[in-house]
Amino acid sequence: MSGALHELSVAELGKRLKAREVSAVEAAQHFLARGSKHASLGAYLATDEAVTLAQARAADARIAAGESAPLLGVPIAHKDIFVTQDFPSTAGSKMLEGYRSPFDATVVRKLAEAGMVTLGKLNCDEFAMGSSNENSAYGVAKNPWDTSRIPGGSSGGSAVAVAARLAPAATGTDTGGSIRQPASFCGITGIKPTYGRASRYGMIAYASSLDQAGPMARTAEDCALLLSALCGPDPDRDSTSLDVPAEDFTRSLNGSLEGLRIGVPKEFFAEGVTADVRAAIDAALQQYEKLGAKRVEISLPRTELAIPVYYIIAPAEASSNLSRFDGVKFGHRAQHYGDLLEMYKRTRAEGFGDEVKARIMIGTYVLSHGYYDAYYLQAQKIRRMIADDFQQAFRQCDVIAGPVAPSVAWKLGEHGGDPVADYLADIFTLPGSLAGLPGMSIPAGFGAGGMPVGLQLIGNYFGEAKLLNAAHRFQQATDFHLRKPEGF
Ligand code: GLN
After folding, report:
1. Does residue 130 have its Cβ closer than 6 Å to ligand 1?
2. Residue 1 banded pLDDT, cuts 50, 70, 90
3. Relative to the CA of 173, which ligand 1 atom is closest?
4. How far is CA 326 from CA 341, 342, 463, in A?
5. Per-chain mean pLDDT for the chain
6. What percent of the chain has pLDDT over 70?
7. Residue 130 falls within a domain, yes or no?
8. What domain range is 65 assigned to?
C-alpha cells in the first residue's frame, strides 16, 4: 500500500486518511523518505522530520476524534517565499539565510488549520524574481522530466516536488507567471487566483500589486480543494485582500462545457512560439471543441507591451519592498564595516544576488525624479489599457486559452545569464498578471525532448470556478496529467 502513496492525488489521499487506511504519520514519512531519496533534484531548501511528524500526529488525533475534512492529514510543501514559524524562510536569498519568522503566512496557517502537514520549504528564484529557478542562492532545482533542464520559475521547487511525487501538492506564488510557467514546464496543474483572493500576509513581498498565492498539484480537482482552503479575506492583515468569501470550488467541477466560448488570442500564436508548443496547444483546443466548447478568435493587442510594462512596474515595487533588508531589521548583516552607511551597502552587496540587484537598480531608476513620468507613469497607463483589452475580449468569450510559454523548458544555463531571454519567455503570463486575472496551467501534451507543454486558461475576475471546471473536464478526457517522468 505505502509504495503507491505518492501516486495518489490529494483528493484520494484525503479519502484514505479519513477511512484510516493510512495514517498521516505514515503518509508524511513516506514523502519525507522520497524527498531524501531524490534530494539531488534540489527541490527542498529545508525539512525537519520532528516538526513534520508532530504535525502529522496532531492530524491523526483529529481524524481519530472523528473530524472529517478533505485535506486533513494530507502533506504539502511550501514555496520558501511564505514565512513559517517552524521552518526557516529564505525567499531563495542569502540575505535571509537561516531566518526564522515569528509567525506563519496566512496561506500557510489556513492550510494547517485545514489539517495539512508541512513537509518542508521549497526552492525558488531569489525573492521570486526569475523564470528558471537559476536565480536561487541555494542552487537550481532540476526538472524531473530531464534533469539537464530548468524546472521554470520562480516556483521551480514547488513544480519539481509535485512532478517528482515528493509531495502531493505545493504552494506557489505568481507575480508574473511563477505558478503557471513552472507548472507548465513540469507537467502539473497550477492556479493563480484573482488578485486579492488569497492573503499576501507573510508572503515575502516582491511586487505587491501583482503577487498572488496559489496551489500547485497534479489535478484540477486537487487545485480546487486547495484553493478553497487557502483563499478568503484577511482584512486585518492584508488590506488588498478582497472581501469575497471563500468558495467551495469542488462544487463547480461537474459543469458541462457545451457552448463555452473559448477565446484564442491571435497574439498568443505569434512568431517565437515553437512548432511543438503550437501543435500541442492546437490539439488541446480541438479537444475542448470535442467537449462542446466553441473556439472564438480574439485579440489582446497589447500583449507584447506586457513585457516592458511588467519589467518597469515589478522592479519599481521590488526596489521599495526590498529596502527593508538593510542589515538592521532582518537577516544578513555584513561583518566588517565602518559607519552605518557602509554597513547598509556591504550588507546589501553581500546579501543580494545579481538579478535582485539589477532589479533594485532598474526600479530605483524608473521611480526617480525625471524618469518617473517617462517610465513608471507610462507603464501604469498601459497596464490599465491591458486590463481593458481583457474586458473587451471577455465580451466575446468566457475563458481565454493559449500557451503558457513560447517553448518547453530550456536547458540549464541555455540563456547564459541573459536576463532578457528569460523576460521574453514570460510574454503570455504577464498580461493576465498585470490585469489581476485568475490563470491556470494544465498539462496539455508533450513537445521537444519529450518535455511537457502547458495550456494556459485565463478567466475573468472571480472566474476560478469556471477555470477549474474547464480544466477538470479536460483532465477527465485526457491523461497528460497522469503521465510521470521516468524514474519517479
Ligand atoms: N518571471 C517573472 C519575473 O521574473 C515572474 C516571476 C513571478 O511570477 N514571481 O519577475
Report:
1. yes
2. very low
3. 9
4. 10, 11, 40
5. 97
6. 99
7. yes
8. 2-259
